[in-house]
Design goal:
Blueprint (H helix, E strand, L loop, with lengths): L2 E6 L4 H10 L5 E4 L9 H9 L3 E4 L3 H10 L6 E4 L11 E2 L8 H7 L2 E3 L3 H15 L10 E7 L4 H9 L11 E3 L9 H8 L6 E3 L1 E3 L5 E8 L9 H11 L6 E3 L2 H5 L15 E8 L4 E8 L3 H16 L9
Parallel strand pairs: 1-2, 1-3, 3-4, 4-6, 5-6, 7-9, 7-10, 12-13
Antiparallel strand pairs: 7-11, 8-10, 11-14, 13-14
Helix pairs in contact: 1-10, 4-10, 5-7
């Protein structure tokens, strides 16, 4: 018997990509509402309560509303919005967070899919804090650049629709200048930090792809770790993990640049440690497709775990 999946919000950027990954799979069946019923609360409630697993690809308020519509205790939920990422009773959907997280997700009824910036940030922070190399209370700065698809429909239109009121041809811009980006709370909580990180996002004139950077003044850290120590902690944490990889120091040192689109079309998150040992400085960089492991791919991974399916099914 195949599992019945309902994607609430399947017409959005993430919903469409999840649907494309599930279409044609023999182990799940995707149920859909007609276009004229997608905003009908009664129709949505019926679909939500009649599925095995619901994937919510909605704005925060609509995601909370969808959860409130579910009365069937057997329905499992993956929420791709920001609404529940630090909420009690929800499991954070990053299987590589630690050695037990994939098992927690498999047992969970409520899973919060990570934000793309947050996923990349936490992937760098959590292992270093767990290894004692980066104190949980250390001042942390994160710099990031993403393709415009990460900003949702309005930002996509501002780059692709020349008739849009806010259409722009800008090749690059920094945003979130009020320092209140919605991904910061989950970075702090699930990254293991005791203080709020300083997070500076930016967007380039390309559709998808992402780089998040964690600068480290090694001389300021306890024990003055060397680049090999930073790399070793990351490598040990992600040993034998298929979808999070750590590039070796030699190949990273030989790189002339890092392109945010390099992993587009994959579900890999790749970490690099760039370093100048003489200056006691390093930058850890996370490279990911913000629509792959940063969104749709991670939702499918979590779905596979929750339903006891082949973990890698539908992932690339």
């Amino acid at each position: 018997m195949t599992a019945r999946i309902f994607i609430d919000g399947e017409a959005g950027t993430t919903g469409l990509r999840i649907r494309a990954r599930l279409d044609g799979r023999a182990d799940v069946t995707v149920a859909s509402l007609p276009d004229d019923k997608r905003k009908d609360a009664g129709a949505r409630a019926g679909m939500l309560n009649g599925c095995d697993l619901a994937i919510l690809c909605l704005p925060d308020a609509a995601a909370r509303e969808a959860v409130a519509l579910i009365g069937n205790p057997d329905v499992r939920i993956i929420d791709a919005s920001t609404a529940h990422r630090t909420a009690d009773g929800w499991t954070y959907g990053f299987p590589e967070l630690d050695a037990e997280q994939a098992g927690r997700i498999a047992e969970a009824k409520r899973v919060a899919n990570p934000g793309c910036y947050a996923l990349a940030s936490i992937a760098m922070l959590r292992p270093l804090i767990s290894a004692g190399l980066l104190p949980a209370g250390h001042p942390v700065t994160l710099n990031a650049v993403s393709g415009y698809s990460g900003g949702g429909r309005k930002m996509i239109e501002s780059y692709e629709d020349e008739t849009a009121a806010d259409y722009t041809e800008a090749p690059f811009r920094v945003y979130g200048l009020g320092l209140e980006h919605k991904h910061v709370p989950e970075i702090e909580v699930h990254g293991g930090l005791k203080r709020r990180p300083l997070f500076m996002p930016s967007v380039g004139r390309f559709s998808q792809g992402m780089i998040v950077q964690l600068p480290l003044q090694l001389w300021s850290l306890p024990g003055k770790p060397e680049p090999k120590d930073i790399h070793g902690a990351l490598s040990a944490h992600y040993q034998d993990r298929r979808f999070v990889t750590v590039a070796d120091l030699a190949s990273t040192a030989a790189m002339a640049g890092l392109e945010p689109e390099a992993l587009n079309g994959t579900d890999e998150l790749r970490l690099h440690v760039f370093a100048n040992q003489a200056r006691e400085q390093a930058v850890v960089a996370a490279l990911v497709d913000n629509l792959g492991k940063g969104a749709a791919g991670q939702a499918v991974h979590n779905m596979n775990l929750m339903l006891g399916l082949i973990e890698e099914a539908g992932l690339v």
